[in-house]
Write a structure and sequence with these properties.
Elements lengths: L8 H30 L8 E6 L6 H8 L12 H9 L4 E9 L3 E8 L2 E5 L6 E4 L4 E2 L13 E3 L5 H15 L6 E6 L4 E6 L4 E6 L2 H21 L7 E5 L7 E4 L15
Parallel strand pairs: 1-3, 4-7, 7-8, 10-11
Antiparallel strand pairs: 2-3, 4-5, 5-6, 8-9, 9-10, 11-12
């Protein structure tokens, strides 16, 4: 009769320890080998292909801004760092970075599309079609005339949305918005290309739209009484509950001073 041979406990522990050590050495060796391989010159980045929207940037500009921030090989280079380096370049809104084996990167750029200036003369920036404020050389703006928007920091999208709401309201009277301002207190003001300043008051799009529509529906009737057109409006205040105050160029509501009688 055969009897099973029982392996002593200390032998089992030694075998398990040896197996764990063997697996550990193999894993460590694989890790060291992998780190050595990814640093081989064959995997050094040999080129970066840039596609997408590059209207405001050229190869020299991109190289000067991005190259100093790149480090590593095809495998070790941090793509998030590469993306951040490209997105730090003026006019670049978004960058998508991919590896192309064995030693190249491909970057697809999306540029800001400027739709308005943002801020005052001392801090003039640009705002894109998403309502995002960004810094770039305003002299590179392709459009001849852009409106100027301004407001508290972080309200770019709100001001742009209000501008887009108001533009079609003024268009039927051939009036164009040159500036739209949102004050810290939440009050809106429009400056037309004719120079007219119109106080719109506080409120959301529905409130402001209602006031502007009431104003535009009657302003031509008022100006025609004085032989003027809507372009003659110098200023208007729409913050009154049941109407608005109006000032026209060349029309005075003051009484001329009467010269004293000669004695």
């Amino acid at each position: 009769m055969n009897h099973a041979v029982t392996t002593p406990l200390d032998i089992k522990l030694m075998n398990m320890t040896a197996m764990v050590l063997f697996v550990g050495f193999v894993a460590l060796g694989a890790l060291v080998t992998a780190r050595w391989m990814v640093r081989l010159p064959v995997f050094d980045i040999k080129g970066i292909a840039v596609t997408g929207e590059v209207n405001h940037n050229n190869a020299l500009t991109l190289r000067a801004n991005v190259a100093p921030r790149l480090a590593g090989t095809f495998y070790s280079m941090d793509l998030a760092t590469v993306r951040a380096a490209f997105e730090a370049v003026p006019w670049v809104r978004r960058a998508v970075v991919r590896r192309e084996f064995p030693n190249r990167l491909r970057v697809v750029l999306q540029e800001h599309q400027a739709v308005a200036y943002w801020g005052g003369d001392g801090e003039l920036r640009l705002i894109n079609s998403y309502g995002e404020v960004f810094e770039a050389n305003v002299g590179e703006v392709e459009q001849d005339t852009l409106p100027r928007l301004s407001g508290p920091e972080g309200h770019g999208a709100e001001v742009l949305a209000m501008y887009r709401t108001l533009v079609p309201l003024f268009t039927p009277l051939a009036l164009s918005i040159d500036q739209l301002e949102l004050s810290v207190g939440g009050s809106w003001r429009v400056i037309l290309e004719t120079g007219a300043e119109i106080e719109l008051g506080r409120g959301g799009a529905a409130d402001i739209t209602a006031r502007v529509q009431r104003f535009l529906a009657t302003v031509t009737q008022v100006t025609s009484r004085y032989g003027r057109q809507a372009s003659a409006v110098e200023s208007a205040d729409l913050r009154h509950e049941n109407g608005y105050a109006l000032r026209l160029r060349g029309v005075s509501t003051t009484v001329a001073a009467v010269p004293p009688r000669k004695k």
